[in-house]
Amino acid sequence: MTSGEILRDLFDRYPCLCPCESEIRSALVLFFTCFRRGGKVLTCGNGGSSADADHLVAELMKGFLSPRTLSAETRLCLEKSGGSDGPFLSSVLQGALPAISLGVHGALISAFANDCAAEAVYAQQVFGYGRPGDVLVCFSTSGDSRNVVLAARVAQAIDMAVIGLTGRNGGLLAPLCDAAVKVPEDSTRFIQELHLPVYHALAAATEAEFFSSPDRELFDTRESDFGPVARPRDE
């Protein structure tokens, strides 16, 4: 399936998400632009939303709906430089879309929370990891989680794009987002139920864009279903 077909399938399966179509498509273009520029995605949330943030990273960093076979050139490079392990590495590694989940770094989180400010843990990680052109994906069912909002503010300050997945209200987070996907539910459990198909579709559509054919490279210049994707600023 193409990226466009994946989104059409999402809205066919979950018609309640149709009011969010514009924001979901905007989020996808932010992903495309980020990865074409050699950027990365950072994700964060609390509780179940932290698990969702980690889940999204898993779908980006390895094959999701396709195996993401490495190019012949990359396989040859691994075989030449990997010694006796080269053939093994060239056969098992897959193409990756760089992403980091901020909620899983226990030592850093506990140290910063103890020594500085617990509510700014994600903000500190965004400040340390983030670069202009990267994307921060914020999961917050209320949109008011202070640690997530502070992370979004830092992302804005260092010229990262921000994608928010929230509930109907959007809270304080939505105005800080370049794409705010406010799913039409109010209860935490129902909001999270709708977040899952949204980020699955984003991951699947991004994978289709960059790994739709054997040996297709991450920086392939072909146009997507959404038209030309923005090129790096220095081109």
What descriptive keywords fit this protein?
235 residues, alpha/beta, Rossmann fold, 9% strand, globular, disordered C terminus
Describe what you observe in this structure.
The chain is an alpha/beta fold and 235 residues long. The chain has a single domain (3-65, 97-210), classed as Glucose-6-phosphate isomerase like protein, domain 1 (Rossmann fold), CATH 3.40.50.10490. 49% of the residues lie in helices and 9% in strands. The protein is built from nine helices and five strands. It has helices at 3-13, 21-36, 48-61, 72-81, 86-92, 106-117, 121-129, 146-157, 188-210; strands at 41-44, 99-101, 135-139, 161-166, 179-182. The protein has a five-stranded parallel beta sheet, with helices on both faces. It is globular and about 50 Å long. The model is unreliable at 219-235 (pLDDT under 50).
Number of strands: 5
What portion of the residues fall into strands of 2 or more residues?
A: 5-15%
Would you list the SSEs in sequence order as H and E?
HHEHHHEHHEHEEH
Tell me, what's the shape? Answer: globular
Low-confidence stretches: 219-235
**Percent in helix:** 40-55%
Tally of helical segments? 9
The overall pLDDT, averaged over residues, is 92
Strand order of the largest sheet: 2-1-3-4-5
Name of the CATH architecture:
3-Layer(aba) Sandwich
What is the highest CATH level, the class? Alpha Beta
CATH superfamily: Glucose-6-phosphate isomerase like protein, domain 1
Major sheet characteristics: 5 strands, parallel
Radius of gyration: 18 Å
